[in-house]
Amino acid sequence: MSQHHKKMELSCKDCHASGQKVIPTKEACLTCHGPLDELRDAAKQPESELFRDTNPHYSLHYGDGLECSACHSEHKPAKIYCNTCHHNFEYPDFPTNK
After folding, report:
1. Each residue's pLDDT expressed in tens, for the chain with a length of 98 residues
2. Burial level of 10, CB count in 10 A (0-12/13-18/19+)?
3. What are phi and psi of 59, to 5 degrees?
């Protein structure tokens, strides 16, 4: 579990409502981290020569259809899903589980 969530004294069931060891849904994440439109606004990146409209919470390919777990994880290092193909996206404020 991330240090941030530990400090908030969350339990496993706060994210895994069923008590099962399954990846939480986007809806479960948005219970605390939402609403999604506010996440999109906060995460919008400045345009550059290489990229325009880069936003990790609204992809040109997937819209807002990706699950949070495509990038974020509590139990393993976070990753930037876009770099699966592009290899050159950088988000300076991207959280990692350090």
Report:
1. 777 788 888 888 888 877 778 888 888 889 888 898 898 888 777 666 555 667 778 888 888 888 999 988 888 888 888 888 887 777 766 765 44
2. middle
3. -85, 145
Alpha carbons 18 and 2: distance in angstroms, whole number:
20
Longest dimension (CA), the chain: 46
Question: Residues 58, 69, 89, CA angle at the centre, nearest 5°?
Answer: 50
* Stretch (H or E) spanning 7: helix 3-7
Residue 43, helix vs strand vs coil? helix
Q: Which two tokens stand for residue 61?
A: 């390919």
**What's the rounded Cα separation, in Å, for the pair 50 and 46?**
11
